[in-house]
Amino acid sequence: MNRLKSLGLGVAIAAATALPVWAQDAAAPVNNAFIFNTLLFLIGGFLVFWMAAGFAMLEAGLVRSKNVTMQLTKNIALFSIASIMYWLVGYNLMYPGDAWTVAGWVGGFSSASIQGEIAADAGFATGSDFFFQLMFCATTASIVSGTLAERIKLWPFLAFTVVLTGFLYPIEASWQWGGGWLSQAGFNDFAGSTLVHAAGGFAALAGAIILGPRLGKFGKDGRVNPMPGSNLALATLGVFVLWLGWFGFNGASQLALGTEADANAVAIIFANTNMAAAAGAIAAMALTQIMYKKVDLTMVLNGALAGLVSITAGPLDPTLFGAVWIGAIGGIIAVAVVPMLDKMKIDDVVGAIPVHLVAGFWGTMAVPFYTSGATFGAQLMGFAAVGAFMFIASAIVWMALKATVGLRPTEEDEILGLDKAELGLEAYPEFKV
User: What is the pTM of this model?
Assistant: First the structure.
């Protein structure tokens, strides 16, 4: 009896204390769409943040052991620089609202603020949007890091990262996602096959041409000398981490989770993203078996990534079969473009140019197959505009750095390895050749 009386008293107290809350809720109902949208941005943001670890592991595994510490240093530094620069100028350049410096082309130059009152009709917290979009900015810089590995000094690379993340990426992304001229021209890029991946690929391509190949990569007779990575287990882990992060990259780009339709869209995007990656890996595996009579794990890894890049421009509209064939062509691109770059003597250490630039082009051009209203003309125009801007602007920055502080270490330092030469710290100190 005493336990029953205590229970009844507890229920009465709980009911009494809850009454003011009910009254408050009736006066100011909770905006559940705001909460779920914000949560999607935050979850998507930390999944894309995890991609930074994936890039670091992939690059550390695909470079030689004497340069592993340098790649890890570059990856944590570039993410940190991107965070500061995106706050300092990048976010408002990319999302100027009505504060365009040149309408539709260049946004406003001011620092981001996430403080202030929540508007009654706000769809999400400003802080969650800033956090999520920052991750895309950092991803663009990560693409450049892998291509130029093993033969670029640390500080010139970080100086380029300042310009890329603070100015170049936000400007071209504003043309579409900030409501600029590309969005008005009918260009479609859902999550960034062009605006993130190809943009980073063009910046990397410009750098690779100006920087030149690694010592000994290409013989005088035109022969390509393989330079195997130090740790394929680490590289494989990096790809799985990137694969996981891509669900946030594409899924949260729906930008809403406040309705049943939005939730269904996110689910479709997740499924299509996964299918494209799987198809890219299988296609790359099959093609390397045909071309080289053996399966090349590094190509399979890049095939999965190329499948992911390929579906990123339009992950919502295709059927599962559509995602499979779009991703499979991306995987084929990842394998087929590598010998083309070798013939041009362009040294891309991790294969980022085939994966991000060329597969990014394919993914952008695949959008009209499934997305109503998208046209091949608008897609080609948008890709060409972003590509030209990023390549030319990046080349100017690379050449300026080369003429002032220099880009490459000395031959002796490159042969020794940048870990010892620049950092004095080896990733594998007990390993001896």
Answer: 0.91
